[in-house]
Amino acid sequence: MMQTFLDLKAKQPEDLPSIIKIAFGLAAFFPPVKSEIRLDFFDDQLNEVQKEAVSFALEATDLALIHGPPGTGKTQTLIEIIRQLAARDLKILVCGPSNISVDNIADKLGPFRIPMVRIGHPARLLPSVISTSLDVAIKYSSGGMLVNDIRKEMDEKLNTSKKTRNGTERRKLWEDIRDLRKECKVRERRCTEDIVRASKVVLSTLHGAGGRDIIRQNFDVVIIDEAGQALEAQSLIPLVRGPSKCILAGDHLQLPPTIPRTDKTSSLRKLELSLFERIIKLHGPLIKRTLSVQYRMHEMIMKYPSIGLYDSLLLADVSVRSHLLSDLPNVIKTDETQEPLVFWDTNPHGGFGEDDTGAHESKSNAMEAALCRYHLRNLLEAGVQPKDIAIITPYNAQVALLSGLIKSEFPDEFSEIEIGSVDGFQGREKEAILLSLVRSNEKKEVGFLADERRLNGICLLQNSHFLGTVP
């Protein structure tokens, strides 16, 4: 990342790539001219809004944003864009701020047999995408097999050197090993470059895009997914070498880039502005297309974020619009399974005040955790499967408290019930969500929960049922 800054600093403003100029307001953005040629879509399941977003991204000259609130099929739309670009024989670099964001694309892209390679250590990748990793590609390539033969020869000479007592022979063996090591590095680098060069789609984290496996390659198009969660500096890494086009996809109205919380955090808050959000603020709605039909949650759950953050643009597809827990197989009708949205007041005067903790310690609320346990029991007794339930909270201390409580009460179901933080759960789906907000005090302090983007991330996680505690 530091090298990216140095590269940019060394350039005069007029010498910067056009995408960088537009991103920082040094050049104007001109909306693409709509093509008269009818586009043949590969995916016949795309809705009209998704098709419009695909066409917009393909027609853009240099920069296009896809604004995808959760559940609106952003990944599906990106897969169509990638397939269209690959069909035009363009070389594409797909990036994201985390391994999981990149692996989600790689996993969905796999069945279409587009020549692709995933850059990254196999230990950090999803099992379903390891077969596309660079390490595996090298292993089974002719160049990789030759590298393995050289390594075997090095090992043999090393073992021989340990046994020989003749100093002259030992020096000769070490000279051979040194030469073989050099040859191994050269051939390994050449093998890597050949594989990456032969791939139409290369997938990497944003940090990985600055690595030696990619740095020597040129790409026609860079696609950055989850761009609303990426640090701005990260997003610049794949752009500094000047691709012809960049497509950013994400949602700046959800959780911002993660900034470590320290005593100096306030001075770092400016880093929460992502490149995605900066571009929207600079160039307005003409630079983006918003996916508006969501397939994840009941209409009542969707109502708050739609009105409060998305200018009432979100629409619930008919498949989820009135979906309830009681519609699931073997789930009986109860007060909780027939209501899509339930709130429980945890006012401190009612005995639900948060636990006493230090000013800089994670917060917890034992009474609220007990309330979550009670409603979890009701859902399980109604027939909701443990794997369909998640309990989430903004605070790690509450995660630990809930985990201990649920494990002791429901030992058989515990492994299937997901308990975690809001940040860690973003983008996931469950049929039922129990949300513990924790904060409940006389001063009415809610800390970082005052950030409406965090509340939005919470509201858009679930599918058919949402039970939240209100401080």
From TrEMBL:
An annotated Gene Ontology molecular function: hydrolase activity
Which InterPro entries does UniProt cross-reference here?
AAA+_ATPase, Coronavir_polyprotein_1ab, DNA2/NAM7-like_C, DNA2/NAM7_AAA_11, Helicase_ATP-bd, P-loop_NTPase, SF1_C_Upf1
Family membership noted in the UniProt record:
Belongs to the DNA2/NAM7 helicase family.
Q: Quote the Pfam families the UniProt record gives.
A: AAA_11 (PF13086), AAA_12 (PF13087)
**Protein source organism:** Orbilia oligospora (Nematode-trapping fungus)
Keyword DNA-binding present in the record's keywords: the answer is: yes
Please list which residues make up the signal peptide.
none
Q: Which SMART domains match?
A: AAA, DEXDc
Upper lineage: Eukaryota, Fungi, Dikarya, Ascomycota, Pezizomycotina
AAA+ ATPase domain span: 60-272
Q: What is this protein called?
A: DNA-binding protein SMUBP-2, variant 3
Keywords assigned by UniProt, alphabetized: ATP-binding, DNA-binding, Helicase, Hydrolase, Nucleotide-binding
The record's listing under CDD domains reads: DEXXQc_SMUBP2, SF1_C_Upf1
Record field: catalytic activity = ATP + H2O = ADP + phosphate + H(+)
PANTHER family xref list: DNA-BINDING PROTEIN SMUBP-2, DNA2/NAM7 HELICASE FAMILY MEMBER
Top-level taxon of origin: Eukaryota
- Gene symbol here is IGHMBP2_1
Looking at the record, the residues that make up the Helicase ATP-binding domain are 42-292
